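Ops channel
N.P.: pipeline sanity check, posting one input/output pair.
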């Protein structure tokens, strides 16, 4: 586990948990590095969500704007319930969009945690000053 601390002060250790100060600029740099490497996956997931929304628009004869809203609200697992798919196939597509949203969220969380890991490892090696 990782928590926070300032380097000049001694870090607190409790139950083998060391507290670190995370360099924000380094973290953002590492986050961009990780996201750059998964950009194709992110774009594919977004494209599949858009295609699902277009398919629902075609099947249910609804405006594209409404079905795009439905697709992204479903993918983000918000699901307000103000719009719903009507046909059986549209409902199946909406379920698929929901699963794509879960994968998308998991990918973003994993990438953020990888960037945090890279930041901590570089700071441990002394590759970053506190003020950077």
């Amino acid at each position: 586990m990782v928590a926070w601390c300032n380097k000049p002060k001694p870090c607190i250790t409790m139950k083998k948990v060391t507290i670190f100060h995370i360099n924000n600029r380094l973290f953002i740099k590492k986050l961009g590095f990780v996201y750059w490497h998964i950009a194709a996956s992110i774009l594919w997931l977004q494209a599949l969500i858009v295609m699902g929304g277009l398919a629902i628009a075609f099947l249910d004869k609804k405006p594209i704007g409404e079905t795009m809203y439905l697709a992204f609200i479903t993918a983000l697992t918000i699901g307000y319930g103000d719009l719903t798919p009507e046909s059986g196939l549209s409902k199946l597509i909406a379920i698929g969009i929901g699963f794509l949203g879960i994968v998308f969220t998991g990918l973003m969380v994993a990438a953020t945690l990888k960037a945090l890991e890279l930041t901590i490892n570089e700071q441990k090696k002394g590759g970053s000053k506190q003020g950077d």
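N.P.: looks fine end to end. DSSP finds three helices and three strands in the chain.
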